[in-house]
Design a protein that fits this description.
heterodimer, A: mainly beta, seven-stranded mixed beta sheet, four-stranded antiparallel beta sheet, 0% helix, B: mainly beta, 11 strands
Chain lengths: 114, 114
């Protein structure tokens, strides 16, 4: 399985500001995914990021709020823009596991918005 | 109705007990079923992966899938305090070869007590 790291591991931010979360993988992968995990709720897919194309967003998530970059096959960023307390959550990146269709997750970024 | 239902717990058992964790789902297109373990302040870690119906065993862990009932289970034998974590079921329907959208349950919090 791939080794995935995320930065920052946690942050406390003020309302109205933006935070960019980085995800680094130790091997080249085609698809990277960004999830949100809110207390007491399922992991919810925000978007799928393929290198060289625009990210595909799930219903309820928009590019203006969660812009994503995927400059190469080992790296992606997710920005949470114009934050409000409702954006307080854990944000996780994951990568596809190839033919088994599984996914492997990074350690997550714990975001608190005041 | 959620696509995947999972009792959030918490579930508390004595050390050495057999633990049964379950999920039900409504989408008959799901074919790939996974169980993830998530320790506090960590990302989800893939435990078991099963395709279609049947059983799969790995050490103390057994995953069962009953597609006719739309019901999946994870059994943990001889449970240990180190098994204390949140267990998430996940499933997907279409193999894309590089990863696919996973639908998660909310997770069951398990505590194994000495």
């Amino acid at each position: 399985s791939a080794v995935i790291s995320q930065k920052p591991s946690r942050d406390i931010c003020q309302r109205g500001t933006s935070l960019t979360i980085q995800c680094q993988v130790d091997s080249q992968v085609t698809m990277m995914f960004w999830y949100r995990q809110q207390p007491g709720q399922s992991l919810t897919l925000i978007a799928t990021a393929n290198q060289g194309s625009e990210a595909t967003y799930e219903s309820g998530f928009v590019i203006d709020k969660f812009p994503i970059s995927r400059p190469n096959l080992t790296f992606s960023t997710l920005t949470v823009s114009n934050m409000s307390p409702e954006d307080s959550s854990i944000y996780l990146c994951s990568v596809g596991g190839g033919a088994t269709d599984t996914q492997y997750f990074g350690p997550g970024t714990r975001l608190t918005v005041l | 109705q959620k696509e995947v239902e999972q009792d959030p717990g918490p579930l508390s058992v004595p050390e050495g007990a057999i633990v049964s964790l379950n999920c039900t789902y409504s989408n008959s297109a799901f074919q790939y079923f996974m169980w993830y373990r998530q320790y506090s302040r960590k990302g989800p870690e893939l435990l078991m992966y099963t395709y279609s119906s049947g059983n799969k065993e790995d050490g103390r862990f057994t995953a069962q899938v009953d597609k006719s009932s739309k019901y999946i289970s994870l059994f943990i034998r001889d449970s240990q305090p180190s098994d204390s974590a949140t267990y998430l079921c996940a499933m997907s329907g279409i193999l894309t070869g590089g990863g696919n959208k996973l639908t998660f349950g909310t997770g069951t919090q398990l505590k194994v007590e000495l």
